[in-house]
Design goal:
Blueprint lengths: L10 E6 L2 E21 L6 E20 L14 E6 L3 E14 L8 E9 L1 E6 L3
Antiparallel strand pairs: 1-2, 1-4, 2-3, 3-6, 4-5, 5-6, 5-7
Length: about 130
């Protein structure tokens, strides 16, 4: 019996202006889309569904800022990218804006506990051979 191996994340990071700003330990994505039913006169059931806008909400946990670049004020971040790298593909969430930031820092630990973001676009890029 052949088993299927699930591709897991190898790397999760936040990027702005082509620079990696932070590494992320864990993420969760909630996608939602509106749908409206199309009704026919005299029918008790919908004859079709018309889909609308799709939106993405990302929850990032343990966001570790990079020391490679100048210090970044995460509260000033706007229109940035979150990249999830898997062995077989990259998932890119672009047009990101933060909604919530939970900052519980400890001495010697420069990371943010939790960030909630909205993304305007999701794109899947196949891995390069």
């Amino acid at each position: 019996m052949e088993t299927t191996k699930m591709p897991t994340s190898r790397e999760i990071y936040v990027e702005a202006d082509g620079k990696r700003l932070a590494a992320v330990q864990q993420y969760r994505v909630r996608g939602s889309r509106t749908a409206k039913s199309v009704d026919a006169i005299g029918s008790n059931t919908a004859i079709a569904l018309v889909t609308g806008k799709t939106s993405y909400e990302l929850e990032l946990k343990k966001v570790m800022l990079s020391r490679e670049y100048d210090p970044v004020d995460v509260y000033e971040l706007s229109n940035f990218v979150v990249m999830i790298v898997k062995p077989d593909r990259r998932i890119v969430y672009s047009g990101c804006e933060w909604k919530e930031i939970e900052e519980t820092l400890e001495l010697g630990e420069p990371c943010f506990e939790r960030m909630v973001l909205s993304a305007s676009k999701r794109m899947v890029l196949e891995a390069q051979a």
